[in-house]
Amino acid sequence: MRVGIIGAGSIGLLFAACLSRVFNVTVYTRTSEQAAAINKNGIVLLSGSEETVSKVEALPITDWEGLEDLTIIAVKQYQLVPIIERINQFTDKPCNLLFLQNGMGHLKLLEQLKVNNLFVGSVEHGALKENLFTVRLNGLGTTNVAVFRGDSRFLFSFTAAVSRVFPMNYQEEYFTMLEKKLIANAMINPLTAILQVKNGVLVENPFYFKLFQNLFSEITTILNLRKPEEYWAQVINICKKTADNHSSMLKDLEAKRLTEVDAILGYILQEAQRQDKKSPQLEMLYYLIKGKEKQVEVLK
Amino acid sequence: MRVGIIGAGSIGLLFAACLSRVFNVTVYTRTSEQAAAINKNGIVLLSGSEETVSKVEALPITDWEGLEDLTIIAVKQYQLVPIIERINQFTDKPCNLLFLQNGMGHLKLLEQLKVNNLFVGSVEHGALKENLFTVRLNGLGTTNVAVFRGDSRFLFSFTAAVSRVFPMNYQEEYFTMLEKKLIANAMINPLTAILQVKNGVLVENPFYFKLFQNLFSEITTILNLRKPEEYWAQVINICKKTADNHSSMLKDLEAKRLTEVDAILGYILQEAQRQDKKSPQLEMLYYLIKGKEKQVEVLK
After folding, report:
1. What's the confidence (pLDDT) of residue A201?
2. Residue A288: its chain B contacts at CB < 8 A?
3. In the β-sheet with A126-131, what is the strand arrangement from edge to edge?
4. Would you identify the CATH topology of the domain B176-293?
5. What sequence ranges are listed for the domain Ketopantoate reductase C-terminal (chains A, B) (predicted)?
6. Distance (Å) from the alpha carbon of B203 to chain A's nearest alpha carbon
7. Given an 8 Å threshold on Cβ–Cβ distance, is A284 in contact with B194?
8. The CATH fold of domain B2-172
9. Could you tell me the maximum CA-CA distance found in chain B, to the nearest angstrom?
10. I want to staple A170 with a disulfide (CB 3.0 to 4.6 A). Which of A143, A159, B172, B277 is the partner?
11. pLDDT at position A61 over 70
């Protein structure tokens, strides 16, 4: 089976390295410079003191033609638009696509795709790209995948095959799966990025914990969560399990990159607006992060 | 005329240095070490490239007996309680007291005082204590003073005498005077401390400015401001005039000190509670700062 991976950031490199153990993988990069680096060096995966090198074919994204049995799209949500356009040029071929973006804002974009089999996934690994062809796995989590539209059999057997080398769980229902991840991201990412603290501090510091409860209450109301205690337990669990990690949003700001705040808070803010509900805390977090992005941009 | 100044932080030292040009000043310090340092070196006032040294008598606070014609209390609000107790031991003598705390939470404490003439002031100078006897004046602003209880004639003539050497304005109405300062502090201090930015950034960065407007709207509702546009204009004006300054709350956190967040946000939060109004943004800021204080405390 042939697998294409669009995007060679931390998640793209991690998936390419791991999936190449069972599949024939081609990774598609934004720059030809990165494709050349991967073709020359392979993908280096660091995990603890272990280092493995995987030979993986790399091509610039402009060479993608949807020829693989499955294409995994591992770019940030704000980079999706040109990729969706490219995909729509090749929809005469049968195509299986798996989208790994954070948040839920990209679901609307997926509706535009003419492809039959669309899958979505939520990644819970801690990975950090160290250079064009090297990725460090800081925390082995799992990837949850579900059908967004189309046939489930392909995804089911793919997940079974992957699970032999890399944790991946097939989920029956995409909406709850993405919503749970979204809420965890909305709770943890902006606060850790603003406060410049590790994830664990949010539950260890009694004042941040109080703030955390207030914020969760606002999100619960906006998203009409039916069993909020389950979502709450998951958020607390993630904070504790990743206590020593820097969230992706904190890392983005540290590296002077754009964050995924629009993907993560934008969706909930739009929901609030649609239902004419107030969202003062989320708005405050949103503007704090957008302001920080602006400051970082000015510094560049 | 004899003037006592309780507290030798940045504001206490600044007032002692300036008022000693026209009055006989005694400064009362928390530690006898600081009193000794001031008696030995005088108070050094730095302003731009200028340096002036004022010979001022210093005594430990335990020596204060209310013998001066006026005592200025220049400690932080959270340090007031033991001082109020000490003052109440000496209320057999006629006593004029001027309190220079930020916020409005201390007004309740002042009601406990048996003294007749109570004045309050709000200081708009930018001053930084550099060591036990040295203070740097970063921005010459003014001090507004008003009668809280008692006779206005003393304060009026005192203000006139001071004005010859140091900007000081007599105000007719203490409540609005303190409220204006409180609102400016509530808007500027927590945000600059959380974001670690200079005051000017809050109005220059379009996202922080949007946040600023939302926050002001919440404060307006809680405090039932009748002419909000006047308060808003003042806040913006302060941000622009002190664009390059670090707010006192930012400086407190940088120096790993407690902040005045209870004095500044506590009063407005209590007002919200009393009127059963929501205060989600102020609460978020409050817990962010309290959490930061806790982090700083842990580091010490």
Report:
1. 97
2. 194-195, 207-208, 211
3. A50-54, A43-47, A134-139, A126-131
4. N-(1-d-carboxylethyl)-l-norvaline Dehydrogenase; domain 2 (1.10.1040)
5. 179-293
6. 11
7. no
8. Rossmann fold (3.40.50)
9. 56
10. A159
11. yes
Mark out chain B residues that contact chain A at CB-CB < 8 A: 194-195, 197, 201, 205-208, 210-211, 214-215, 218, 280-281, 283-284, 287-288, 290-295
A contacts of B207 (beta carbons < 8 Å) = 287-288, 290-291, 293-294
Q: Which residues of A touch B (CB under 8 A)?
A: 194-195, 197, 201, 205-208, 210-211, 214-215, 218, 278, 280-281, 283-284, 287-288, 290-295
pLDDT at A94: 66
If 0-12 CB within 10 Å is exposed, 13-18 middle and 19+ buried, where does residue A241 land?
A: middle
Which pLDDT does position B126 carry in this prediction? Answer: 81
Alpha helices in chain B (DSSP H): 10-19, 32-41, 80-88, 107-111, 152-163, 174-195, 201-204, 206-223, 228-241, 248-254, 261-274, 280-299
**How far out from the chain centre does Cα A99 lie?**
9
Alpha-carbon gap, residue A18 to A127, rounded angstroms: 13
Nearest CA in chain B to A218: B280
The residue with tokens 């064009």 is A132
Q: Smallest CA–CA separation between A293 and chain B, in Å?
A: 10
For domain A176-294, say whether CATH 3.60.10.10 is its number.
no
- The pLDDT value recorded for residue B103 is 87
Contact indicator for B87, B66 with CB cutoff of 8 Å: yes
pLDDT per position as a tens digit, A12-51: 999 999 999 999 999 999 999 999 999 999 999 999 999 9
Question: Would you call A291 and B214 a contact, using CB atoms and an 8 Å cutoff?
Answer: no
A298, pLDDT greater than 70: no
Q: How does A91-127 read in b/e, with b if 16+ C-beta sit within 10 Å?
A: eeeebbbbbbbbbbbbbeebeebebebbbbbbbbbbb
Contacts of B197 in chain A (CB under 8 A): 295
- Give the relative orientation of helices B280-299 and B174-195 as an angle to the nearest 10 degrees: 60
CATH 1.10.1040.10 domain span(s) along chain A:
176-294
Residue A78: which pLDDT band, with cuts at 50, 70 and 90? Answer: confident
Q: State whether A294 and B205 contact (CB < 8 Å).
A: yes
Q: What is the mean pLDDT of residues A186-207?
A: 97
Is the model's pLDDT at A139 over the cut of 80?
no
Question: Which is more confidently placed, A114 or A35?
Answer: A35
Q: State the span(s) of chain B assigned CATH 3.40.50.720.
A: 2-172
Which residue from B minimizes the CA distance to A295?
B205
Contact list, A197 vs chain B (CB under 8 Å): 295
Q: Is A136 helix (H, G, I), strand (E, B) or coil?
A: strand
Sequence-ordered list of residues with C-beta below 8 angstroms from that of B171, at least 6 positions apart, any chain: B144, B145, B146, B177
Q: Where in chain B is the domain with CATH 1.10.1040.10?
A: 176-293
Look at B214 and A280 and tell me if their CB atoms are within 8 Å: yes
Coil/strand/helix, residue A220: helix
pLDDT value at residue B94? 66
